[in-house]
Design goal:
The structure is a single chain. By secondary structure, the protein is an alpha+beta fold. It has 2 helices and 7 strands, in the order E-E-E-H-E-E-E-E-H. Strands 1-2-3 form a 3-stranded antiparallel sheet, with helices on one face. A hairpin with a 2-residue loop joins strand 6 and strand 7. It is flat and about 50 Å long. The chain starts with a strand and ends with a helix. The model has no long low-confidence stretch (mean pLDDT 76). This is Reverse transcriptase domain-containing protein.
Amino acid sequence: MGILNNGMWYKTIGYADDISIIIRGDHPGTIEELMQDALNTTWEWCRSEGLSINPKDNHYILYQEKGDKISILRLNNTEKYLGVILDSKLTWELHLKAVQRRRIRISGL
């Protein structure tokens, strides 16, 4: 995790063949700089380990927090990470529907 001052930071989390980069910053320019630093670090690590990144399989959701509200600035409607479906409204609705469909399919009902 790279830590910067004033509560701005980024964290890179990897599991199997999935990587997430979580960034917190107060200004779009700061977030952009943090993202570029995180991407460069991740790219170099992957290269040193003989791994590659598929540019067509990169997605992002950018949220903005104002008081107790979160606004979506840019997004993909949904993202799936480690089996959990995240939607643009940060609800569990799509994930729960998918789990229910899977349960019905497996049980044969």
